[in-house]
Records
---
Amino acid sequence: MPAADPARLVVLVSGAGTNLQALIDACGDPAYGARVVAVGADRDDIEGLARAERAGIPTFVRKVGQFSSREHWDLTLTESVAAFDPDVVVLAGFMKLVGSTFLRRFPDRVVNTHPALCPAFPGTSGPADALAYGVKVTGATLFVVDEGVDTGPIVAQVVVPVEDTDDVEALHERIKVAERRMLVDSVGRMAREGITVSGRRVRFGAPARAT
Ligand code: GAR
């Protein structure tokens, strides 16, 4: 049974926004228990923003270069996201590291999806790095964002085979099909059940109450 009020999702994007689209589509079902209340980006003219606009979702853009320092950008991004009172902040192909101000404001509520099996192949070229290394399986990871690069406690992972004929694009596309399913499934569970983070271990469900 979904909660009376759906969880409020703010999604940050930098590109095509296919993960965002999967979330928007899932939120069309009231039983999913969440809705996307805003989409933010670090750049203009991306399909991710166009997807939000087509769905009637408010958008905002905060570019690092518009600010006097990275910290100022982080503070402004924090306030822009906070204005929408999110229950969960989803970084879905957001190609910037959020800073400590942002993370302190939304503790254990910021998740990022990465196209590799963490802790392998962190950074912005996960599929290319996996292919170059010659691994036979890779995948995608949803994690609670911390101050490192793709180092946070892991919420969910999905495994994807690497085929002999793969180039980077083919591999990334196969990962993204599995990644979107994992993201939709996990964010829905976060919305409906919450998560509990204990050190590096994450489980779905609210923290046990002290009696
Ligand atoms: C996704 O595969 C996501 O994991 C990746 O960018 C893609 C965005 O696709 N993110 C990273 O590599 C972050 N390190 P989308 O814009 O179609 O959702």
---
Amino acid sequence: MADVLAAPIGVMDSGVGGLSVLSEIARLLPNESLLYVADCGHVPYGEKSPEYIRERCRRIAEFFQEQGAKALVLACNTATVAAAADLREHYPDWPLVGMEPAVKPAAAATRSGVVGVLATTGTLQSAKFAALLDRFATDVRVVTQPCPGLVERIEAGDLDSPLLRQLLQGYVEPLLAAGCDTIILGCTHYPFLRRLLGEMVPDSVTIIDTGAAVARQLQRLLGERELLAAGPALPTAFWTSADPEHLRNILPLLWKKSGAVQSFTR
Ligand code: DGL
């Protein structure tokens, strides 16, 4: 039993965005050993077909299974809408945590009655997102804004260039013009733009992301199954399907620490 408890947790994203979720998991569950796969060779998922994303997620899930991971976290909204159901069917007994834009808390928080969602095209076009709106956004107006180009800037380690500012401004303005007082960050890359976003929106606008809620959901799932580790955690291990050197270089910016990065070749 002790071995199962000490087993690592696999966390994945199309790239570095999931590091925003990984940080929340590490903060809430410091005894857990974490593995992270950044599928940087195939980013952005937001512009790819659901079939393509499902296939990538299958390969990464298979890898985590081989590593003995006791749980899987899809630290990616786009991967969750495309692949969570498929993975749950394929691995019915494996605890899996996915994520979705925080429509429910945003609908509860808004005072103006208008909520904005920044997310990828893939997430916003999905049936799962439409169902989320039907369920939780019947009494509010939701303005959606796909954000092509943002993920690529963040993947390059750019959190504050004139080009990035211009792109982000172009995506935020329509939300403010529509009267949004609550903005959902519906992509795990975007929390890295919180500071910049804070400069672009009035203080009265609430910005909501889901990283901390995902960490709590993971804690709940592991707790229910008596799978929480007693520690100590091993150092977090990273893999990328693009150049390991690039991830190594931007880890200190996004993860605030350095880490061992290996190549993911599947
Ligand atoms: N970070 C991902 C998300 O949460 C997707 C980014 C992308 O690859 O397009 O949706």
